[in-house]
Amino acid sequence: MIYLILSDIHANMEALEAVLAAAGRYDHALVLGDLVGYGADPNDVVERVRKLPSATFIRGNHDKVAARLASFEHFNHLARFAIQWTTEALTPANFEWLAALPTGPIAIDDIVEICHGAPFDEDAYIFDDLDVRRALATAIRPLCLYGHTHVPAAFRMAGEMYVVGPPRGDRFRLALDNDARYLVNCGAVGQPRDGDPRAAFALLDTMARTLTIVRVPYDVASAQIRIINAGLPEVLAHRLAIGR
Ligand code: ZN
Q1: Ligand 1 center to residue 190 CA distance, Å?
Q2: Would you give the distance in Å from CA 12 to the centre of its chain?
Q3: Residue ranges of domains in the chain, CATH in brackets
Q4: pLDDT per residue as tens digits for the range 40-83
Q5: pLDDT tens by residue, 178-196
């Protein structure tokens, strides 16, 4: 089985198209939430992912707030502005679809589970050692994939916990040992924050037991123009060019 892993697309249609073109053959897509928010194309992105032939979705915090299932009181002013814009821009059908997205974590098979923030809380950020240990202790599958921070990261636990990587560069391949547990963030499709502006996605091959994080360039300038033309804050366009 080959899974395509997509997280934090954030209404960036240019990045999504580049990722889908680069992904090649896969059996099933795992979409880890934050389909909308920040970017200028929430409807195009939702309609594109809904057309994926085989996919499992969970919601992200931006999807939840855009669908008015949660308040934006914890959002900074940029995220708040963008999410209000997004709610108004969404078609009724796409709004309803986002509102119905399931809550993570979801166990996909015997190997992998997916969550947006952390397996113990869909909205929690995995930042420090304590968060990583708690996530590894809570995960119910040997490979737990998360998003939300927009920074690729990989942790391995086999008795001791240690950091793998960091997963940077064009293709970062992680060989999954049978006797270890893993917690991996495959990066963001639509708003990378690790200083590499290229879109990030991953392919998980459960037969070969490899997880490969791939970076792919996309038309950043076009995504920036759409953000500015939409009347969204310019800083949301500028950050795409620097990957922050
Ligand atoms: Zn996000």
Answers
A1: 9
A2: 12
A3: 2-241 (3.60.21.10)
A4: 999 999 999 999 999 999 999 999 999 999 998 889 999 999 99
A5: 999 999 999 999 999 999 9
